[in-house]
Amino acid sequence: MRKRQPSVAIVGAGLSGIALAHTLLERDIPFVMFEKASEVGGTWRDNVYPGICLDTAAATYCFPFAEKYDWSLVHPPGGEVQDYLREVARDLRLNERIRFNSEVTECRWEGGQWELTTKDGVSATADMLVMATGFLRVPSIPAFTGRGDFRGPQFHSAEWNTGFDPNGKRVGVIGMGSSGIQITGALSQMDCQVTQFIRTPQWIHTRENHQQSRLERSLFKMLPALGRRIQNAREEKIRRSDPKLLKNGEWRRFPGPGREAAFQAFREDLEAHLKDPVLRAKMTPPDLPGCRRIPLSPGYYEAIQRPNVTIVRGGIDHIVENGLYDSHGDFHGLDAIVYATGFDAHAYFKPTKIFGVSGRELGERWTSGGPEIYRSLMVPDYPNLFVMHGPFAAINNIPIPLTTAEMVGYVTKVADYIAEHGRALAPTVEAAKAYVHWIQSSMDGTIWATDCHSWYKTADGEAILWPFGRQEHTAMLGELERADFADFPSALSEAVRSR
């Protein structure tokens, strides 16, 4: 008798959700996807601010099953990435499987399966639950005093008002992460006055953004193997000549001459682009390169030297109806404010409430006791639950599509076990603690363990990401270690017994 495959509920139709859906389709595993928005895309759907672009090489950001090399630029604009995701979803006919405008608010383990409830009261059940909700999706805006008094347009970078016209206006940009850098760069080329408020400046990677000619794009579309060879050779040449990229940036993991060479390269880059000593002092970070995520921008340093751009180093004291006062007490008149203040990087699946075997809610459990997780993917007491890019995931030094593919492979290994044995799986508390200890004890010596304020870290200052490389990640998700798991009754049990 043919095995009954476990059913899968996927929450989120961004990059991770699409990657998993592709594999489940290949393996004929039934699934349904829930997406709170009206289309796929995740972060690339939500972030439409001027200047947004992919700050990793596009050739490494493709799905292994849908390679693409005919990008307009090595680091293409966000809209081009969103078009790619739409195209992949269309080719896979995922729209037939996705429940759009369906925000999952609660998931409960009941009767050997997951019960999901959406915001509009619709219920569904599945044997496996995959939270593919992303890790940079919940906007974070500090509680600035007087924010409600401001009379002009104000919005977070991830909630860009597409009807807003910056021309002729005084625009304040608060923040210097990737979005703040990209927005300031784009606005600097418009007919507006830009004031960027920077509490802590960041090191920037200024590598050139190569534009691919029409001929290159046509050739690479017809001959993807040629595109792969040429772009791999181009990337390898850049890596060999740039200390910041040497050996895939291993200086972040290991102290030594490579790290010193990378640090020197960042310092020389800053000095070469900013000749004015006053501006250079404003833009010199107090921490070491790599402790925080390093934004890529080929033109930001040029942008902040344009006459319509002013850099203010320091925090925000309070906001008033026509501007704000900085932490030095100086007033800045503004017509609009953009909060490029980042995200709650540790929100994971929130605000969805997830209740496990014991009835305890997972978000509350992690808030009070720290992130207890196994393989950065599964959680004790929550059978058949997978949190894609969960705590300690490799979001810092390996291309996301590659790590996603390996996580997807692990999900299918668990699915195979469930189909064979009819039992649900959750890691033991001991296995999860051992995994977290292994990660934390391996962080010493890495650049992420140095002292800085970063979304890579918890509120307690502990780095919560992957301290190893690609080889270790592949090995970590290579095998299902049955001894690390407890099993639970599953709704599939009767089907397996009757085979």
UniProtKB/TrEMBL annotation:
Pfam families assigned to the protein according to its UniProt record, in alphabetical order: FMO-like
Key words, A-Z: FAD, Flavoprotein, Monooxygenase, Oxidoreductase
Official protein name in the record: Putative monooxygenase
KW ATP-binding (keyword) present: no
PANTHER family: FAD_NAD(P)-BINDING DOMAIN-CONTAINING PROTEIN-RELATED, L-ORNITHINE N(5)-MONOOXYGENASE-RELATED
Keyword Oxidoreductase found: yes
GO molecular function term, any single one: NADP binding
InterPro entries: FAD-bind_Monooxygenase_sf (IPR051209), FAD/NAD-bd_sf (IPR036188), Flavin_mOase-like (IPR020946)
Record family assignment: Belongs to the FAD-binding monooxygenase family.
